[in-house]
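Long-time lurker, finally posting.

We've been working with Glycoside hydrolase family 65 protein (Flavobacterium lipolyticum) and I want a structural starting point before designing mutants. I don't trust myself to interpret raw outputs, so I'm hoping someone here can both generate the structure tokens and explain anything notable. Sequence follows.
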Amino acid sequence: MNQDYIKPDNWSIIEEGFDAERVKSSESLFSIGNGAMGQRANFEETYSGETFQGSYIAGIYYPDKTKVGWWKNGYPKYFAKVLNAPNWIGIDIQINEENLDLHHCTAVKNFRRELNMKEGWYNRSFEATLKNGTEIAVNIRRFLSLDLDETGIIKYEITPLNKDAKIVYKPYIDAGVTNEDANWDEKFWEPLEVKKGANEAFVTAQTFKTHFKVTTFMHNTIFANGENVNISPSTIDSTADKIQFTYGTIIAKGQTSSIQKIGGYTVSLNHENTLTAAEKCIKTAVALGYDTLLQNQIEAWSKIWEMSDITIDGDVKAQQGIRFNIFQLNQTYLGKDSRLNIGPKGFTGEKYGGSTYWDTEAYCIPFYMATKDQQVARNLLTYRFNQLDKAIENAKDNLGFKNGAALYPMVTMNGEECHNEWEITHEEIHRNGAIAFAIYNYHRFTGDYSYIPEKGLEVLIGIARFWHQRASFSKAKNQYVILGVTGPNEYENNINNNFYTNYIAKWCIDYAEEQINKVAAEYPADHQRIMEKVALSSAEILEWKKVAGNMYFPTSEELGIYLQQDGFLDKELIPVKDLDRSQRPINQKWSWDRVLRSPYIKQADVLQCFYFFEDHFSKEELKRNFEFYESFTVHESSLSPCVHSIQAAVLDKMDMAYTFYLRTSRLDLDDYNKEVEEGCHITSMAGTWMSIVEGFGGMRVKNDQLHFSPKIPKEWNGYSFKINFRNQILKVAVNHNGTTFTVDGDQDLTLVVNGDPVTAEKLFQTN
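Top reply, 14 upvotes:
Generated this for you. Predicted structure of Glycoside hydrolase family 65 protein:
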């Protein structure tokens, strides 16, 4: 834990007291989004202290030219960047002719932020004394509508406390923004048109290179003590990319003046005429009004929480942590559009380019499958199917592969690889396996096999072809090996025979062959169509099987474990407990050479394999490997603690499972890795959900049935969650006396609980 200022609360994230050193961290933690757009919790008014300005629109990106010191053949030409979108929240404010700026106020008291996760709004309030002696109380509420997902609204209230005040509101929209993360300091937005109307304005701009067109809009209304004063702007200032209105008001001491600002974005991804669409957004929002918009927001979030909430009784910090994770996941992606995906930072920052990683398939899909309609998860799979041609092109052009072999990108916006670190782009090829595993996982959980003959089988064939060509035969070992890779543990680069990579390569080939045979038997028309399209022969499949059937896996017979890769035991094996805390995190304290030579693991590849393929190994094998690798794992990957929590629960190491749960659930709230100001770890948040459902709840799907082996940390009185399993809603409630299963559906649901089959009807309890 590196920070501890967030107040424990079951339903809200709360900060009390103004501290300039915390501003950027809080901008991340109090971020809001609605699946179509999102923004960091930047102040609406001017703030001259350190800040990280960020508003983002789903699917809008820029191909920032790759910048490396030494160019290597095969480098992607660009690193896609999620763009800091035009600013619609800005409201410059003058009070008695002085600018409101918390960085320059003589006093700031009773500062409070609240992110209300239950109802989906962000609130900020404070009292401030300006240099001119005016004392004010301010309250601001902001939310991004789930129902009108191109629209947000701000209610900004000011009450002078010690004297009457002349308040000047200067709301603006501005496309002249820059990215925090940019390789060449280029401008990303080209202004096209500025248009004004009665209390409303529009700035239309498009991205350079990608030519996404966006109209940013605003509509302003001024109130005094809750009554519309019906004034128009006294002045209007505009440039090629910005327009600002000025409203002058006078308010008596103790009375409240406010501005309500409606704003947002319409984009060419969804509209032929973005300006017309923006005008329609304003008309709809104004007609509904602030109170109705807020009530609709509360109701929309209530529906989300009805299915996705996890309750924890007796541990407020644990409860706050899981709800924060679930809230951010739903803010980032709601599954409405198969063109969109889940960036590691979501709408909270720019690191990792805002692009799609293997995190989606490995960690996020289970959450979306279980808490939403299966179509949401299917859309995530469709995203990859739609980019299969690009994956084949990537393998062909950058790696010299042939015959339809597909290597999905490590990082992508549109299917093209856009990551510019060699050890990631060309070595971290295990991501192919996660994409295949997600197809298997989707069918296993939903029972919907139709995706595989319709789309998935082509993906599996392209991936199997890749693994067949990527492996090479070692005469010395008389087995197939995979050389020059980086596993999920990015603290070991360019290594040979990473256990996880080799294992999932074998599994992908076996699974692809199994599905080819199943489709041939049950969907002959689809089988014929696909085989003709990809020109796959029985002889080629036999060649695949030679590789899968004779794959090399590094092991230590002495220790009874699988090795991360060849040579891991040659390292100086000093456990983490003997590493000085002042040296952590090592990726911020050590040279990369020192990191690579150390035994320290960002996330344990062997344990990732055990998580995916738990049934392939014995519990004793898990115990030996877990205890060995845990001692060297520094968990400096956000994806690491959740897997360890799940496996610790399997091994009845409940204290350890609980500790890892807290770490994954409060990774950002407590800033474990000293980087939250860059944005939150959105994709790993799904791992927090898995820590409870799969870890403590012990949920698995085997032979078309749900299995549970519930356990409960001693720190909790009880916990509960819901699962949408094949269109039946199952509620699981666990306490120290037993587990209750409640089915909301027309049919009974057969479960296996602690190894015993039971039939859950409307209510079933196990002791």
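Before you design anything, note these points.
Residues 499-522 form the longest helix (24 residues).
The radius of gyration is 27 Å.
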